[in-house]
Specification:
Strand content: under 5%
Number of helices: 9
Structural class: mainly alpha
Length: 200
């Protein structure tokens, strides 16, 4: 027995058998595999993708149209804001005239027990006929105008009348005029009852 040749055959025979088995297994396995057909799913996904792309294109064109409208509105707005200030003032004055509070003479008479004329400054505690005339000469002819006047402006009107009007305190006059303008007759009467000669 030749041990040197025998040792090579011990290694060579198992390697050849293994290679032949692997090749036969590959051939058998290849013959049994089935091909999966995904063409229907692929077609469905392609259709969905095409629909989404069409929707995206529609949204982009709509956005462009809206942007054009927005730009047109901004141009109109800037043109209107550049209009002369006089028209804005006149439209504001017209709006203010519409928004004035109506005078209710019956409600005033019910609270004070006498007829009250609209915008009669003498309803304000501390203002008599002479002071009312001084305010009218100064351009303050309504309760609203007096309610918007500052105490300093009221004092300036009084100071224009001389020393005899220094004893008068106009601090509450704008507030009282505002109550009269807003038709808050009960609050005005209560306030005048609680304060001596309209002094705060």
């Amino acid at each position: 027995m030749d041990f040197a040749n025998m040792n090579i055959w011990c290694w060579l025979i198992p390697l050849l058998v293994g290679a032949i088995c692997a090749y036969l297994g590959y051939l058998i396995g290849k013959g049994k595999t089935t091909t999966i057909d995904n063409s229907a799913d692929l077609k469905l996904l392609e259709n969905k993708n095409a629909k989404l792309q069409a929707d995206l294109d529609a949204c982009i064109s709509k956005r462009a149209a809206l942007q054009t409208d927005l730009d047109a509105c901004n141009v109109k707005l800037s043109a209107k804001s550049a209009a002369p200030a006089a028209s804005a003032v006149s439209s504001f004055a017209a709006g203010a005239a519409v928004a004035s509070i109506p005078f209710d003479g019956d409600a005033a008479k019910a609270v004070f027990g006498k007829k009250i004329n609209e915008d009669d400054l003498k309803i304000v505690e501390g203002i008599g006929p002479k002071i009312s005339s001084m305010f009218n000469d100064a351009g303050i002819k309504t309760w609203k105008a007096l309610s918007e006047a500052t105490v300093a402006e009221c004092q300036k009107v009084l100071d224009g009348g001389g020393d005899r009007y220094k004893i008068h305190d106009p601090a509450s006059w704008p507030m009282q005029a505002k109550m009269a303008y807003e038709g808050k007759w009960k609050e005005l009467a209560k306030w005048q009852d609680e304060h001596d000669h309209g002094k705060l």
